[in-house]
Amino acid sequence: MSVIQRCSTRCAAGLLPVALITVSLAMGTPAPAPGGGTVLPVNSKVQGKTYAQWAAAYWQWAFGIPADTNPLTDTTGEFAAEGQSGSVWFVAGTFGDSQERSFVVPSGKKLFVPVFQSIFGSGVFDCEPTVPGVFCDVPTLQATAAANIGLPGEVLEVLIDGVAVQDVSGYRAASVEPFSVTYPDNSVVGVAAGTYFPQVEDGYWLMLSPMSPGQHTIEIHVFMPNTPSFGTVDFTLLDHVTVQH
User: What average pLDDT does the segment 15-41 reach?
Assistant: First the structure.
């Protein structure tokens, strides 16, 4: 069972499709700015990490934060800074619900934005120990994750400051190697604290260079029909972000 299936009945968790993200950046009084973050090529490396490695780091960040302050279930944006460090800022998705959030990002941060993605593995109700008696076979997990991505009829639309990102489906990154996640007490998916291995991911992500001071928008619309594990997915998220020194 995948995370989103389990949490459809408990907490609607797991797959983090994002249908609309609007990001406003400002220093002091917001002012329109002509440029936004550039989308880095999917084959590029940031701090020596590939897109897929950053995707694994995203899940490790998101699942490492207790439920009561977790950015994935945050309804206002007040917890967006939880666990953030370094030059890359993770923009939180949701657990399948629409939200509107406002938060502050320090200047000079690259943004790693989830568009549509899935995670399968030992810590998300697909195999042992969260599913006792089911062996964690990495190729099977990878195939399952891939089967829920890149389906006919998908809509992946991203606009940065009103300019469409071309070929969003080209920004797909899947696990080459499995990774672990470590849950704290009061984990966001309701499993016991501890480290769980293996996990795999597959999906669409955007790594953005730091945005210039001023007003910016990132708009994402995702419609994914008839995924094998999650059914039809169609979500909206609205984030207001202030970048300050």
Answer: 48
